[in-house]
Design brief:
Helix content is 38%, strand content 15%. The chain has 214 residues and is of the alpha/beta class. Strands 3-2-1-4-5-6-7 form a seven-stranded parallel sheet, sandwiched between helices. Strand 5, helix 5 and strand 6 form a beta-alpha-beta unit. The longest helix is centred in the middle third of the chain and has 22 residues. It is globular and about 50 Å long.
Length: 214
C-alpha cells in the first residue's frame, strides 16, 4: 500500500507543486483546500476545510479522522499572507495571524502523534525566517512564522519519534507578494527540495534553499 502524505494549503502555488511531486512519486495524497477545489484522481483526494477559525480545524480533524490517522507524513503549507501597514496593526490582527500560521500545524500534529503512524512533519516558514528584520506590511505574518520556527524546534525535542522539519522557501514564481530584491524560483523546484528533506531520517531547520538542479 502506498504511503500517505497530508498537504495543507494544497491549492496554492507551492501546494499544487507538492501534490504533483508526491503523487508522481507514488504517494497517496490527502490535499486540504478551501475555495479552490480540484478533481480527485486515483492518487489524490481533495479535502475541503476552512482553517481560518479553530472550529474549522477541529471539524476537519473530526470528519477525516479515519483517513488522517493513516498518514505517515504531513506538510503544513497552509498560511495565507495578509498585508497590513504596520502602523495599522492591532492586537486582534496579530492574534489572527498567529491562528492562521500556527494553529493548523500544531493541532494536526498533536492529533496524529498519538496514533503512532506519523513519521515526519515539515512546517513551511517564509523567506526571512530566523532574521531580525523590520516588517512594514507583513509584521503579523513574520512574527507568526518565527513562532512556528520555535514551535517546530520544541516539538522535535518533545516527540523524538517524529521527525520535525522547518523549511524557509524562496519567493515563488507567480506569487502575488514578492520582496523588491526577490529572485523567484519555480514552485516545482522548491517542491523537489521539500521532498528530499522529507526523505531524510532526522529533524532539522532548513533556512537556505538549494535548487535541485545544483
Amino acid at each position: 500500500m502506498s504511503e500517505i502524505v497530508l498537504i495543507t494549503g494544497a491549492s496554492g502555488l507551492l501546494g499544487r507543486a507538492l501534490v504533483a511531486k508526491y503523487s508522481q512519486a507514488g504517494f497517496r495524497v490527502l490535499a486540504q483546500y478551501h475555495r479552490h477545489p480540484f478533481p480527485d484522481t486515483p492518487s489524490v483526494q481533495w479535502l475541503d476545510a476552512d482553517f481560518s477559525c479553530m472550529r474549522g480545524i477541529q471539524d476537519f480533524l473530526r470528519l477525516n479522522r479515519k483517513r488522517l490517522t493513516a498518514c505517515r507524513y504531513v506538510i503544513n503549507n497552509f498560511g495565507p499572507i495578509i498585508e497590513r501597514p504596520t502602523v495599522e496593526v492591532s492586537a486582534c490582527d496579530l492574534c489572527l495571524d498567529f491562528a492562521l500560521q500556527v494553529a493548523p500545524a500544531l493541532d494536526i500534529s498533536r492529533f496524529l502523534i498519538p496514533h503512532g503512524q506519523l513519521q515526519a512533519v515539515l512546517n513551511i516558514g517564509f523567506e526571512f525566517s530566523g532574521e531580525n528584520r523590520i516588517y512594514q506590511r507583513i509584521l503579523g505574518y513574520a512574527l507568526a512564522k518565527n513562532f512556528l520556527l520555535s514551535l517546530t524546534r520544541s516539538l522535535a525535542v518533545a516527540f523524538p519519534a517524529v521527525r520535525f522539519n522547518y523549511f524557509s522557501p524562496p519567493s515563488l514564481e507567480g506569487a502575488c507578494v514578492l520582496p523588491k530584491a526577490a529572485k523567484p524560483v519555480a514552485p516545482h523546484l522548491v517542491a523537489e527540495r521539500i521532498f528530499q528533506i522529507m526523505l531524510q531520517r532526522r529533524s532539522g531547520i532548513h533556512y537556505h534553499y538549494v535548487p535541485a538542479r545544483a
